[in-house]
Amino acid sequence: MWWIALVVIAIVAFILFLILVPINIWFRALVSGAPVSMARLVGMRLRKVKVAMIVEAYITGKKAGLEVDIATLETHYMAKGDVIKVVNALISAHSANIELSIQTAMAIDLAGRDVLNAVKVSVNPKVISTPMISAIAKDGIELRSKAMVTVRANIARLIGGAGEETIIARVGEGIVTTIGSAATHKQVLENPDSISKTVLTKGLDSGTAFEILSIDIADVDVGRNIGAQLQMDQAEADKRIAQATAEERRALAVAQEQEMKAKTQEMRAMVVAAEAEVPKALAEALKSGRIGVMDYYNMLNIQADTDMRKSFSPDQPTVTKPDGDKK
């Protein structure tokens, strides 16, 4: 019965062999001219690597004439990289005679950038459209412009280089600076290419993952007269300041007038109080003998005469000459 056990063991071993060793993948790699050892395939299966995808990428690279190692592709896959995209990027760069090593391609992919798209942009430059940018010339006229920036990917600066947002921001800054330094808005309208020429000389692509090939001004529109608007706002502000100052002065004058009225009323009250004391003082003087009765009557006569003269005489007396003329 030992031979039955031997047959069972052989069947189990054969089944395990079929499970662990992807014969079809091994055979396809062999006939494709990119052979892979069975031990490598078994190890990849045990490490839970997608064997079919790795071998397919390996075969594609070998057929394209690349010097790739299947162990390197497996390592990149285990590092959560996109093996297919890296191989396709290497094939595109090799076909376009662009220098790109597999280590650089894997580093770009692991950095989160699309390495295949970067190679495509390096071969076929892309156009980045900026939003409508508003700037003001020295004469106070607002100009709104839109630029089309043609860029090419710089493979050497993809790792750590700034992206499209930085390019757009720098181009916008250059447009604002160029328009703002123009003496009049008419100069910009007559020569819109002066904006692109000035911006290109600033080296805006330094530190970015792109190389700026050209900057074309697609549209320039005339906006508001900011200078006139500012003057109107300043005049309105000056008017409000003048009104506030006048109101303050009026309030101060009213306060002074009220203060003078209060002082006048206070003086009148003091005079009335003093006049109320005069009869008492006269009575005391008569009683003490400091003045006589005739003195008192003479004083009354003088006061009555004075009141009569005031009632009949004008404020400015007139003098009549002997010839009848008035002076």
From TrEMBL:
Keywords: Cell membrane, Membrane, Transmembrane, Transmembrane helix
One GO CC term, this protein: plasma membrane
Signal peptide residues on this chain, from the entry's feature table: none
Region (Disordered): 308-327
A Pfam family: FloA
Coiled coil residues, start to end: none
Biological role: Found in functional membrane microdomains (FMM) that may be equivalent to eukaryotic membrane rafts FMMs are highly dynamic and increase in number as cells age. Flotillins are thought to be important factors in membrane fluidity.
NCBIfam families reported for this sequence: PRK13665.1
Subunit and partners: Homooligomerizes.
Entry's family note: Belongs to the flotillin-like FloA family.
Name this polypeptide is given: Flotillin-like protein FloA
Organism: Candidatus Stercoripulliclostridium merdipullorum
